[in-house]
Amino acid sequence: MKQVVIKSGGAQVVEVPAPSIDKKSILVSVDYSCISAGTEMKSVQLSGMPLYKRALKQPENVKKVIQSLKDTGFQATLSKVRGKLEFGSPSGYSAAGRVIDVGSDVQDFQIGDRVACAGAGIANHAEIICVPALLTVKIPKNLDCLRASTVTLGAIALQGVRRFNPTLGETVVVLGLGILGILTLQLLKANGCRVVAIDLNPKRLEMARQLGADLLINPLEGDYENKVRQFTQDQGADGVIITAASTSSDLIHQSALATRRKGRIVLVGDVGLNLRREDFYQKEIDFLISCSYGPGRYDPYYELEGQDYPFPYVRWTENRNMQAYLQLMDQQKIQLPTDCIYEIDDISKAYAALNAGEDSPLSTFVSYSRSDQDRLEKVIPLRAHDLSESAFKVSGDIQIGIVGASSFVQSVHLPNLKQIKNCHIRAVMSRTGTAASALGQQYQSAYVTTDYEELLADDTINLILISTRHNQHGNQVLRALQAGKHVFVEKPLAVTTQELDKIRHFYQAQKTKNLPLLMTGFNRRFSPIMTKLKKEIEKHQTPLIINYQMNAGFISKDHWIQGSEGAGRNIGEACHIYDLFSFLIDSPVISVTAKSIHPQSSQWLANDNFVATIQYENGSLATLLYTSQGSKACSKERLDLYVDGCVYTMDDYKTLDRYEEKKVSLFSSSSIDKGHREEINSFISYLKNQDAQRKIPISLEDQVSVTQISLKVEEQLR
Ligand SMILES: NC(=O)c1ccc[n+]([C@@H]2O[C@H](COP(=O)([O-])OP(=O)(O)OC[C@H]3O[C@@H](n4cnc5c(N)ncnc54)[C@H](O)[C@@H]3O)[C@@H](O)[C@H]2O)c1
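^ thats the input. predicted complex w/ nicotinamide-adenine-dinucleotide below
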């Protein structure tokens, strides 16, 4: 399908695989999308700036890069940043079209319904979009798709007005008459307010006049504070809704001057925010921020899981704002020009028109005219002679299908795989076409797709590497094994006993010896420090006593890792350490016990802070202390191992010391190597040269037993 991406100071149309449906979403074939001028033009400008300038403008991204440098090192971070920049980023977040498929958990929509959709990264300028149900509303019968495609902008303006909480007869200044300002003006008029419309652009002021603005002011024609005062019997306006886009903080200052004592200012637009105390102090003005489309925004339980807020308690959610806006449009209470429409192939003309200063259109639309059939392609070849290429079937070569374009696979596995001889990235599959395409292009895969079945049906692929959300692992592993592919799955192997049992049964039920191999990404055992430790204790006489502390850091309850997709931190992360215990102790497990703390505060879940104790048949004992209530100033991972009159201590995979008669340093490094490279190397090397003498890097028994430990710990914590 075609999709718009913003890159290098402009917009481009790229061909990417159409998204697949998921059970909580609907698939929409888009008829129109509306450009959010202020936001999208800012992204275009940013994408054309040199990196250092962008960093200054987006310090939040710099923090992410610094964290990535710490976690994954320079090369991996560089490759991730480069990949993102080279492909570009999707744009658009307001669209309308027809439902062409409905997820199994969605109740209120049917194929053929006309719908309007919201969401950055979701309701993109793209031919097909996959939208969660609560970001979708049905379009009233008499309202056309074109106007309905402004739904997100309408909900943003409506949320700004709700934050202002206008009462009949109040005087409100709307500062900035772009599409958001023009919508805000009309919503305020519908609320019985007097509206002062302010903009630098005379054409926008004329439009405001036609839509019923009571006073028009162009700040270029003199200080507007006095004009507002004269209009309000020297009181000042009841407040200002700022819908301008400007880096200057003067807009806030001027708004405060124009506002009456105890009035309010609502910020919708993106303006400079150096607030002056004296502007707000004496008049005791309230300053309010309006966040996007309303309650529910940025709450994954609401938006992605579909958990609506109860109507009587949260009357106006983002979805109900979207509905209310479409109703007002349907009742002709909102007008917008609809004559500026560009076919998707002309997207650069659309953005150029928005750059035309005073003459730039207020509302600009993208149209999509190809047939649904042409749009729905789920496999996009990236290289010539693809898909049936036989040269790839060279014996001994590893042809990999990547499942899930996760940032982990991008920054850790792919740079490592790139270094391995005769190892090719055959295909990248991801939920969204742009993510798959960006990664596929960077690593020159033969094709990209959003359909897992395509990888399973591809005879050339002999290894599937899975790095999706945790609740998908078990099922994806099983299907790949059934399709005869070797599997490398990022931990965890499975999040339920049922999933694990199905994988076990797959191996038990097969008569042939020539079965595909499975390896779970438990990397700690491959780190140089643990390889060293294992060698040290190889001939131990006494049982081992191990105490491992994981000072894991806080992750909020809203993060996907904590919800049903991630299954929590014990199953999702602590499993690494259970595997390390299995590696060091190398004996069957005989019991597992676990207890968590009971904090007063509800910010922690039971599986955020706990101690798990595992007892082994050879008499060894291991405890994991896992906590998210520690401090980052202290090491993240530490191990103490007691055996044969010695103590071994490991600190953050940087140092390993042995204490016997005195302390001896066994390993010391300034960088952290947790074994990711060696883990993938040893699995690939095993796949290439399997023989009876060599053992698979992690036995199936270990992978199953470690997963069982996680599941038992989880049972006890809950
Ligand atoms: N709060 C949110 O959730 C949210 C969502 C979308 C967009 N926005 C922001 O809202 C703003 C408006 O978006 P838009 O699409 O309507 O933008 P736009 O660029 O189309 O319109 C902005 C208008 O402000 C006017 N303006 C700029 N400086 C001014 C000044 N000093 N005095 C008076 N008028 C001035 C411009 O002439 C223009 O008409 C942008 O900053 C955008 O990033 C916020």
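The longest strand covers residues 25-35.
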